[in-house]
């Protein structure tokens, strides 16, 4: 009877830890985990419980074999307990707190505890050490997966705020008639007052009750698709577009002029290439000046609600070339609208984003 108890206890302990960990993981697995950028080595979700069940039997059996020996090995049992605790803590830190950095630090400690357990148990009972081998292999993979998530999702640490966001109309930094005649009050009334308002209303309706309701606008743009992406990106793009216009244009800061000259030959040449991209974009879309991860500047013509955040680029300047942006003032003359746009750009704001 006592022997059965010795064999059952560690295995039951493992399963209790596993079951409570899965409770901590549940909501994160449904809402948060699918949105993360993960390594291609990540197995499908259904693989995890199967692997863990098999591993917990091995881990439990490993300690049982030690305990079954007549002499007591307190150090080995203590190390076993420590690794199980660190194992549980990982679910709390990674999935419940949604903090990939804390998860990574914990899993590194877990790796060390498991290696220590293997080293200490090997001289006492070789089988016990060998039963930890598949666990160690799995942990190496898990450490890599956690590290990958941490490196590629730097914004996720603060994600667990559980506050629902309502997106609101941005304030214009000028009066509705201040940009006339380059951009009339009527255009602002329709473009800002009606088109943008509709995108924001639609976005709030579409995200209600979904994981997107807890995300910032940037996070939604980066992780959504379909109607939610279209309305989120249009909200982002218009907010950025209107914010970068000014009725009192100042000279371009030297820093920006130097960068544009370095990349495009001269400021004039940049404007020419940007204008060409705007005229060449078929149908509706946005032309962007954006910086890649190395800081190199690019002109990107993106159809529909396109936004450089989806290409891991930093937006610096944008021009809306949807017909609704210029039809009232310029009818079908997109080229004239582009020309007028250059007299409205707030270069200080563009320079501050570089
Ligand atoms: Mn627009």
Can you describe this structure?
The chain has 354 residues and is mainly alpha-helical. The protein folds into two domains: 2-158, TspO/MBR protein (Ferritin), CATH 1.20.1260; 185-353, 3-Layer(bab) Sandwich (minor pseudopilin epsh fold), CATH 3.55.40. Helix content is 60%, strand content 6%. It is built from 14 helices and three strands. The chain has helices at residues 2-31, 47-67, 74-96, 100-121, 126-130, 133-152, 185-207, 217-223, 226-243, 254-264, 267-280, 327-330, 334-341, 347-353; strands spanning 285-291, 297-303, 314-320. A three-stranded antiparallel β-sheet has the order 2-1-3, sandwiched between helices. A hairpin with a 5-residue loop joins strand 1 and strand 2 (297-303). The longest helix is centred in the N-terminal third of the chain and has 30 residues, at 2-31. The radius of gyration is 29 Å and the shape is elongated. The site of manganese (II) ion has 7 residues, from helix 7.
Low-confidence stretches: 157-161
What compounds sit in this structure? manganese (II) ion
Structural class: mainly alpha
The biggest sheet, with number of strands, parallel, antiparallel or mixed sense and barrel status, is: 3 strands, antiparallel
**Distance, first to last CA:** 72 Å
Count of discrete domains: 2
What is the chain-wise order of helices and strands? HHHHHHHHHHHEEEHHH
CATH architecture of the largest domain: 3-Layer(bab) Sandwich
Going by CATH, the homologous superfamily of the largest domain would be: Iron/manganese superoxide dismutase, C-terminal domain
What do we call the CATH topology of the largest domain? Answer: minor pseudopilin epsh fold
Structure summary, number of beta strands? 3
Summarize the amount of helix as a percent range. Answer: 55-70%
Radius of gyration: 29 Å
Strands ordered across the widest β-sheet:
2-1-3
What is the approximate shape?
Answer: elongated
The average pLDDT is 92
| Beta-strand fraction estimate | 5-15%
Number of helices: 14
Query: Quick one: CATH class of the largest domain?
Result: Alpha Beta
